Amino acid sequence: MSVPLPKLIVHGGAGSSLQSKGGAPAVREALYQVLLPVYDQLSQGLPALEAVVRACRLLEDDPRFNAGTGSVLQSDGQIRMSASLMDGPRRRFSGVINVSRVQHPIDLALALQSGADRTLSDQGGAELARELGLPPYDPLTEARLQEWLQERRGESRRAMAGVVVESPGRGTIGAVALDNYGQLAAATSTGGKGFERLGRVSDSATPAGNYASPAAAVSCTGIGEDIIEECLAARIVIRVEDGADLETAFRRSLAGSQERGRDLGAIGIDARGTIGWGKTSQTLLAAYHDGDTPGDTLGMDHNWGTGVA
Predict the structure, then answer these.
(1) Backbone torsions φ then ψ of 25, nearest 5 degrees
(2) pTM
(3) Which residues of 253-265 are buried (b: 16+ CB within 10 A; e: fewer)?
(4) Which in 4, 49, 222, 231 has the greatest CB count within 10 A?
């Protein structure tokens, strides 16, 4: 069987709506600024694992999204971020949970791909950052600080400048890629849901929120607890491994999530090169390249979709 063209899909979260009438064009531009250069590198031979890391770095640097710079604050006013990476061919998962003062949490997940201990919590992540020589970095933005202060005063409108989704709790970024060699990878990064209890663990650094195998790869976004309880990323991938096509895997998984009142979304690619996405939330901020043309999910009112293999 011939290897399909490389494919890439990225997301910037899910939520109830964009914040302003000018929101969709701004978000589309931000997503395409990540999608297009990374896809160009992917088409020139960049491995899938490196492609999803590069996409996540760019998304972590955009303060519009709740990951890296622009992450939301927890109940004590501190930022703690989580990220994970999974290499499909090796079924290798790595991640960090509740790390602080790093610019790119996904870089820590990448460093752990080659180690014996592949998921670290806050203190371990801080020590790893020191070992890697990463300079301390403050991801706080003025918009997120003011959002937190308003929440503290009970006046939150979740409408601060530059924040693209009304509910920060649904904010996550992620990427899924299929490369020229037929290999899949998925990466996910988040600042959390905002104002959460100290020590809360999101789905983003678990296989529930980020999973890949030789058959398919998926990155999730939405309410972390809902994603964990659905074990969504792994559920979709395992359905593909069991013989379902990607469209069926997404439709069945999202239908069940919808019935149970979950608030979430997911993006994915299978080994045939089919691109898929699905959501139960109103909005999924995602953009993709199918090897021919780019596209996005903004403005779509249906809850799932697939691209041509």
Answers:
(1) -60, -40
(2) 0.93
(3) bbeebeeeebbbb
(4) 222
Q: Is 38 a domain residue? A: yes
- CA dist list (Å): 175 to 23, 166, 239: 21, 22, 20
Give the amino acid at 28: R
State the sign of the Cα–Cα–Cα–Cα dihedral 153, 147, 161, 222. negative
**Terminal alpha carbon distance of the chain:** 13
| Residues assigned a catalytic role | 172
Q: For residue 84, report the phi and psi dihedrals to the nearest 5 degrees.
A: -150, 165
Residue 1 lies in a domain: no
306: left (phi over 0), alpha (psi -120 to 50) or beta: beta
Q: What is the DSSP string of 92-153?
A: EEEEEEEE-S-S-HHHHHHHHTTSS--EE-HHHHHHHHHHHTPPP-----HHHHHHHHHHHT
Which residue range(s) make up the domain with 266?
7-306
- CATH code, domain with 241: 3.60.20.30
The tens digit of pLDDT for each residue in 157-213 reads: 444 444 444 454 457 999 999 999 999 999 999 999 999 999 999 999 999 999 999
What are the tokens at 1?
Answer: 């069987």
Give domain status of residue 2, yes or no. Answer: no
Domains identified in the chain, total number = 1
Place of tokens 């870089």: 107
User: CA 227 from chain center: how many Å?
Assistant: 12
Is 266 inside any structural domain? yes
**How many Cα atoms sit within 13 Å of 230 on the Cβ side?**
34
CA separation for the pair 111, 16 (Å, rounded): 35
Token couple for 78: 């501190």
